[in-house]
Amino acid sequence: MSIEVRTPTLITKLPDVGTTIFTVMSALAAEKGAVNLGQGFPDFDCDPLLIDVVADAMKQGLNQYPPMTGVLVLRDAIALKIEALYGRHYEPASEITITAGATQAIITSILAVVHAGDEVIVLEPCYDSYVPNIVLAGGVTVRVPLTPGTFRPDFDKISAAITTKTRAIIVNSPHNPSATVWTKADMLRLQDILATTDILVISDEVYEHTVYEGQQHQSVASFPGLAARSFVVSSFGKTYHVTGWKVGYVAAPAALSTEFRKVHQFNVFTVNTPVQYGLASYMTNPQPYLDLPVFYQRKRDLFREGLAHTKFKLLPSEGTYFQCVDFSAVSDVSETEFCKWLTSDIGVAAIPLSAFYGNGFDQRVVRFCFAKKDGTLKTALERLAKL
Ligand code: PMP
Ligand code: GLN
């Protein structure tokens, strides 16, 4: 007797989603032997001490499940850091949870609070995981553009987008992809707008330690009216040059953390143990993250000086490890076509900004990542000099 062998047809939950632009451009860069300034990750290694302390944890036998919320020494270290830098105390036991990177922190926050039909405001351009996360939660995405040209938040537009169904707003400073940074006045304005509402904030602060020109990162944790309604999300990947380790965290008031943890325990349950112990030990010295702005600002300046000799128009890079350029003096093709051509023919990969907009808005701007060895940046600049 033969049985019919068949794979059932699916109705996709994410009809508008393909493979992420980061994966597409990294694959093309590898295929063409291009310098990959597309996907955001360092091409240099982390501090060997960090490897040692993680290896030590493994050798000490710290290899079984940690507590669901993360190892306590790491939550303690995070609480101390947030308090020292942003002036708010989060209770490690009830208000800090270790996650599998910021990506999981964000989707888990959204799944925990967004009910079917709830509206969530995103400020476009925005990181590509936010909207699919809202869709998976059954929420409705409300897209508010950052001001074209400057990428500053437009608070009148944000206020106008608020309805009785608004459940949350996702903010991200320092901002990927525009490399802009919110000021204290911006945060106060947001605090003011939300004051009389029940709107939650998901604050993606993964680039908190890369703010340049002596500016300070403005965490929602520093603003009591925001902190009381916020999930503060960060990631060790950016801070310690270990994007592949995928460990991050969420700090949020106990009532929010309780709901977060209900979802977290069935999302991932726990995050790998020895890396958490290693990070906790490494964090006892604040110098590595305090030194990060100087470290990256030098790379930013090296890259910008090289680009100044090209036809690209440089946009400001106030924070993150990205540099956006306007290429309209070089070509009039679309951003995506330009990135493909730049990768294939010039040998440098970049990311089109249109990938961060729901409607593919094209403003002839692409994003380069300068978290690279000086040699890598110089090779890329030599190639870009041909333009
Ligand atoms: N948010 C933003 C703005 C990012 O750039 C990234 C980096 N990929 C993430 C979230 C995700 O961070 P992680 O790798 O820790 O998941
Ligand atoms: N955050 C990085 C970027 O924006 C990497 C993202 C990814 O690979 N998903 O390039």
Strand order of the largest sheet: 2-8-7-6-5-3-4
CATH C-level of the largest domain: Alpha Beta
* Percentage of residues in DSSP E strands: 5-15%
Give me the CATH architecture of the largest domain, please: 3-Layer(aba) Sandwich
Main beta-sheet annotation: 7 strands, mixed
Mean pLDDT: 97
Q: Which sequence of SSEs, written as H and E, runs from N to C?
A: HEHHHEHEHEHEHEHEHEHHHHEEHEEEH
Which ions, cofactors or small ligands are bound in this entry? 4'-deoxy-4'-aminopyridoxal-5'-phosphate, glutamine
How many structural domains in the coordinates?
A: 2
Description:
The protein is built from 16 helices and 13 strands. The mean pLDDT is 97. 40% of the residues lie in helices and 14% in strands. It has 2 domains: 21-46 and 290-384, Aspartate Aminotransferase, domain 1; 48-288, 3-Layer(aba) Sandwich (Aspartate Aminotransferase, domain 2), CATH 3.40.640.10. Strands 2-8-7-6-5-3-4 form a 7-stranded mixed beta sheet, sandwiched between helices. It has helices at 21-32, 48-59, 72-86, 92-95, 101-113, 130-136, 155-161, 184-194, 224-227, 236-239, 254-267, 273-282, 287-290, 292-307, 335-346, 374-384; strands at 35-36, 96-99, 119-124, 140-145, 166-172, 200-204, 230-235, 248-251, 313-314, 322-326, 348-349, 351-352, 365-369. Helix 1 (21-32) packs parallel to helix 15 (335-346), helix 2 crosses helix 12 (273-282) and helix 5 (101-113) runs parallel beside helix 6. The chain is of the alpha/beta class and 387 residues long. Bound molecules: 4'-deoxy-4'-aminopyridoxal-5'-phosphate and glutamine (GLN). The site of glutamine has 5 residues, from loops.
